[in-house]
TrEMBL record:
Coiled coil: none annotated. Residues 196-447 form the Chorismate-utilising enzyme C-terminal domain. Pfam families: Chorismate_bind. It comes from Niallia nealsonii. It catalyses: chorismate = isochorismate. One of its GO terms (biological process) is salicylic acid biosynthetic process. This is isochorismate synthase. GO terms for molecular function: isochorismate synthase activity. InterPro entries: ADC_synthase, Anth_synth_I-like, Chorismate_C, IsoChor_synthase.
């Protein structure tokens, strides 16, 4: 089955076969500050999303919802999302003169890290696959801006062109003023959830890594309580300033907002070109240039971190080889430096076979040993049993797919869930046979920092 290229199934529509169809129109607009597109529509709070890739090539901001694809308890979630997306697109009229990825109808959302683990109260607002199509979307693609308007009509209506024009002009007439950010929301409490227990579990896991199981990623949570309600706009702005070379994302769902700044790409698909990333192995940044390089060199030469990294490379390579005609992967890692941390990094390039899709790749890759472990099934069983945490959307694929099947998903780490005046933030690390419990604990503390700072809880 091919993705829609903007076809209207006119005959079926005329026969009244469909009870609803999507009308979508794209216009090019004068570039302006993209964040204002998010911040200016505070009346849509709870129904917005934000996405920016590390190179700022593709920025997508959605407001409103015209279609939700929420799937729970499904054996093959990824394929279920793909099928629902294709079915939805089949009854559509797309008016798009611009041949760019990420322009026109886009499905945005994320998956639960492990749908097999029982959901707790914390994540009750999110489905295992939590996706939606916005009503309005700003796409900034290599500096050019486009506005997509999507409308789902219940009835077949010959006036759809006129109706979408009206929706568009109402949108431009609408004046919403940005609420000023509230600076200095005081942090009242910071609770390390099961901190000591986490160390205990890590100790036990390390002692049991000599057999088939080689690596397990264990994560923990920190709950922050602030005096006033946390403003997504403020946190986004902070993340954009402080973590600009990361994927910056926000997904609002009512009073919840899952937000973060992840350095880790899961997969990007542009035509038949696909990219993935192996990211595992960590060390702090240095306080000056010399110290920073010294730490980087130490990380590159460190056996424990190289082993931790290599499991990821081996697994991603073999997953990519299953669906690609060609896979390119460097023989040794380099360094990726973020504000608070540096990682071992191996980029992966591939040429996807025509019959394969973005969702298929996600299905094969998630969870990589960077977030699950190795071998995958055993590691997942261990996490399910031992980890005292419902990861929800943390550590899972989050991103977007457009109507032609192109798109990008990050691994949603360095993230947190905002709930009014409180937030849970999450961090994990790769446990291998020669892991040291205290060092791993410190590594997770370092990974909390970007979100702590962005929320306003720590400098
Ligand atoms: C699990 C996280 O990060 C992952 C674990 C890493 C490690 O253990 O060295 C490094 C990068 C990520 O793949 C996290 O940030 O929560
Ligand atoms: Mg590590």
């Amino acid at each position: 089955m091919k993705y829609s290229k903007g076809l209207l199934v006119d005959d079926k529509v005329k026969q009244g076969k469909y009870s609803s169809f999507l009308v979508s129109k794209v216009i090019k607009i004068e570039p302006k500050d993209y964040l204002s597109f998010f911040t200016n529509y505070s009346s849509y709070k709870g129904k917005r999303f934000f996405w920016k890739d590390p190179s700022s090539e593709n920025i997508l901001i959605g407001i409103g919802r015209c279609k939700e694809i929420y799937i729970n308890k499904q054996k093959d979630l990824y394929m279920a999302v793909e099928q629902s997306w294709r079915d939805f697109l089949e009854n559509s009229k797309l008016m798009n003169d611009f041949n760019r990825i990420g322009v026109g109808p886009v499905l945005f959302g994320g998956f639960s890290f492990d749908p097999e683990k029982p959901k707790t109260e914390l994540w009750k607002s999110f489905a295992d696959a939590h996706f939606f199509v916005p009503e309005f979307m700003l796409s900034e693609i290599n500096g050019e801006q486009f506005l997509t308007v999507n409308m789902v009509m219940d009835e077949i209506d010959v006036n759809y062109e006129q109706e979408i024009e009206e929706k568009l002009s109402l949108f431009f007439d609408r004046k919403e003023n940005m609420k000023p950010y509230m600076e200095g929301n005081p942090l009242i409490n910071s609770i390390e959830v099961n901190g000591e227990k986490w160390k205990h579990v890590v100790g036990n896991v390390v002692a049991n890594l000599n057999g088939m199981l080689k690596k397990v990623v264990l994560a923990r949570e920190c709950r922050l309580v602030f005096k006033e309600e946390i403003q997504t706009e403020f946190v986004l702005d902070q993340l954009l300033r402080e973590q600009n070379n990361s994927y910056i994302f926000a997904l609002e769902e009512g009073d919840n907002c899952f937000i973060g700044a992840s350095p880790e790409r899961l997969v990007k698909k542009t035509g038949n070109k696909v990219l993935s990333t192996c990211l595992a192995g960590s060390i702090p940044r240095g306080e000056n240039e010399e110290r920073d390089q010294e730490l980087g060199a130490r990380l590159l030469a460190d056996e424990k971190n190289r082993t931790e990294h290599q499991y990821v490379v081996n697994m991603i390579q073999s997953a990519m080889e299953m669906v690609c005609k060609q896979v390119e992967i460097p023989t040794a890692p380099s360094l990726m430096k973020m504000r608070d941390i540096q990682h071992l990094y191996t980029p992966v390039k591939g040429i996807l076979r025509e019959t394969e899709s973005l969702m298929e790749l996600i299905r094969l890759l998630h969870p990589t040993p960077a977030l699950g472990g190795f071998p995958q099934r055993l590691a997942m069983e261990k996490i399910r049993k031992e980890e005292q945490l419902d990861r929800g959307l943390y550590g899972a694929p989050l991103g977007w797919i457009d109507y032609q099947g192109n798109g990008e998903f990050a691994v949603s780490i360095r993230s947190g869930l905002i709930q009014k005046n409180e937030a849970s933030i999450f961090a994990g690390c790769g446990i291998v046979a020669n892991s040291d419990v205290e060092l791993e604990y410190k590594e997770t503390a370092m990974k909390f920092r970007p979100m702590q700072r962005a929320l306003g809880g720590k400098k």
